[in-house]
Fold this protein.
Amino acid sequence: MHDVLSYVMNYAFDHEIGVIYDSTLPAYAPPVSFVKRRLVVMNGNFRESEQPFALAHEIGHVMLEHYRFHCNAPVVKYKQEKEADDYATDLLWKYAEDNNINYVDFLATYGVPDRMFIE
């Protein structure tokens, strides 16, 4: 698990995105991105199996420049979340391909959420 987290963090650093990995946050606090600052705060106490996807998802928001608006309509929020999910899946899939990890193991190992398969 740590190898894929390192891969995703290095991806962030390579794209000039800072990552703060904070293990003092409560487990229920989700990771968050600050797009304008190109920064992601990753909760080290967040569900371990979901950390790779969650971190990649927040990096996706930064890379896609998903700025949060005061009046963020639900349809815009859904679209941005879906785009960040797709970005995260693509990023983790690249890691899986580079490491000869099969599709089934990919889904089970990297915390890809069920919502990615429901349209």
Q: What stands out?
A: The beta strands are 18-22, 32-34, 39-43. The longest strand covers residues 18-22. The chain has four helices and three strands. The helical segments are 2-14, 51-63, 74-98, 103-109.
